[in-house]
Amino acid sequence: MRTSTYRFIYWLLFLSLPLVSLATHQVGGQLEMQAIGDVPGHYRIVVTQYFEDGTPGIARQASTGSLGIFRKSNNSQMMTFTVTETGRRQPVIYANEFCAQQRNLKFVVSTYEATIQLAPSSYTDPQGYYISYQTRNRNSGINNIRTPDQVGFTFYLEFPALMQNGQLVSYSSPHFGPINGEYVCIGDAFTFPFGGTDPDGDQLRYSMVTPLDQKGTGMGSNAGVSPGPYPDVSWLSGFSATNAIPGSPTLSVNAQTGKLSVTATQLGLFVFAIKVEEYRNSVKIGEVRRDFQLLVIDCPPQTTPAPTVQLMNRPQRRLTTICQGDNAVLQATINNDWNYQWRRDGVNLSGATSSTLTVSDAGEYTVLVSPKATCSKAGTSDTLAIRVIGQKASLTSTGHLCAQTGSVTLTATADTGVAYKWYREGQALANPVTDSLKTTQDGRYWAVLTYTSVGCTVTTDTTSLVRSAPVLAKIVSASGQNRICPQDSLLLQSSGGLRYVWQKDGQIVTGTTGTQYRASKAGTYVVIATDTYGCEGTSPPLVVIQLPTPAVTLDSIPAVCGPNNPTYTLKGSPPGGDYTGTGLTGNTFDPKTAGVGDHKLSYGVKAAPECAATVVSQTAVVSPIPTIQLADTMTTYRGNTFTLNPAYTGNPNQFQWTSGQYLDNATSANPLITNIANDITYTLDVKNRYGCEAKDTIRITVYIGVWVPDAFSPNGDGVNDVWDLPGIEAFPDAIVTVFNRWGEVIYSSGKGYTLPFDGTLNGVSLPGGVYAYTVRTVPEKPVLRGRLMLVR
């Protein structure tokens, strides 16, 4: 069956790198993240880019570039790294070079690589991570977005957390093969196998999306190290992600295979983007965004050549088998007016432009032919299939050799009908003779495969098995000691692995798999550490003891009255502890230093230096000495009833009055004196609860009444210059009033006769003569009335 294609994909697939100084001549590319497989988190980042050849832009292409890795959940930067161009740039091959040259379609491919080491324990976010790069500019001739020469690129790759639920996650991104140089003819149905393969066997899903613009306006080698979110490009009117190329139908991608298809109805250069999502067990784990361009041209109506192909010396066979290292010759129809371009598995082969092709690699071969010096459609031949015996002879391995344990199963991948011979360090192994070998020894291994049907003998690649370093599990205590303090626990810390199993006295401690464990009981502790390969190591045992709680005592401290007392030596047990409290120097308590008050004195003993002390306390009382504020003497009148109200300090709580005559209660702080009749002296003795004591006395003079003289002589001779009223002091509320002959008040004492009448009124001496008076002592006694002679 012959098919005609005369199509060119004008690609733009530039992903994740700041590799272009001036971005007007970029044509395509992709980014891959390949697990190297030796150490978890060890990756090779490969960037493949396509550029116009022989343009100013390609001359300024940088040989290195910077990428950034970011956390999806918060767009925080995890790291940046640099890729470097790895080798010589190769041309993109077209089926019709004449047409390609006419339309100035000449492109090269370059590869950039870096190896990076990611710590799986740092990449645990369930939302995953992404790599992105931004640059500018797009081709100014693009016909479906606004101001394309001012629009940049953002290319994007997502990958999952490398450790989930304590388990390592294997991951490699999709792989995309090389491209052919083809273009799209307007009005012709166009398809292109654009799907990739996934190294992990994950499901790939394809969809059309809007390309991403550059975030910001920066350029240069660090322009791509910038976190998301990123803006979309701006479509011209009538265009969208699902209508990027006008057609019937428009450009679309098969969701399962990734095949592109379109029957274009408009000439031009059109940009679009495809999102490739990875699913594992129906859960999305990764994503790659790819930017592209398709060039649609008007193909001239020419007769399409119809080449035939055959195997030289085997003209009737469409499939042939050769041994690895042998070759076969493919022969196409010879026509001196034709251009030839051979393909293997749909990909144009470099330099394969003659009517014959010598091949040594397995695959499906076709040849495309087109007239020389004419830009027309190319004709495609039927397919010839070459099967190479031994080409798939490679070794894969599962398992791991730990320091002293473990095993690895080697499997030779080959076709059927094979006899196997295994070798280790150049020595043939007697067994097995099957396609797999299980071994517990390190060394270099390979297998020799003999294909019995054709007699081909092939040697596989060599695999070197190396034991990993021992897992050196270790337990230490945070305190540096192996003892648990009373009423406490001991923090144990482990190291040497990725996961841990703790044991106490030979039994697994459930629920503890981290690096730390808090031991609350004595016992023998061991930790089994597991490294990233699953190898285990057991720590030396750590014996943990429980320290008993010290039996701490502190003798009671007798109370003292006042600070002026001797020092006191405290007695704590067991010896060697620490005394704390006010007034203490060492174990000596000084009441004078402490002062009056209740003082908490403590004694603490540690079971070990790193432990908290067990503390007991006693109260040292320096009691205030009571004081009594009580008048020495007082006067009253016979029959009076009143209360004695001394003021106290020092908190006395015991009171004793002697004598107790006339008192209602001789042990009261404030006794009531009832109907006092005679002079009396009282003695008061008080004590507080600590026995601190004070005494005081009061002499009470009792008057029968007031003696009122009937004359006095205020003449300044020092005798009877004032009107004295003996006994008036017994009546503190007494009111004395003096009147003149007209009944006018010339003197009034107010309550109490504290300023006796001196024969003056407002500082002016009154004339001698007779004056009337009243003396009011207490309400229950009659008012004393009489006449007073003032003698001058």
UniProtKB/TrEMBL annotation:
Domain of life according to the entry: Bacteria
* Any matching Pfam family: CHU_C
Identify the SUPFAM superfamilies for this entry: Immunoglobulin
Query: Could you tell me which InterPro entries the record lists for this protein?
Result: Ig-like_dom, Ig-like_dom_sf, Ig-like_fold, T9SS_type_B
Stretches assigned to the Ig-like domain: 301-387
The cross-references to NCBIfam families, in alphabetical order and at most eight, read: Bac_Flav_CTERM
Task: List the protein's name.
Answer: Gliding motility-associated C-terminal domain-containing protein
User: What organism, scientifically named, is this protein from?
Assistant: Spirosoma validum
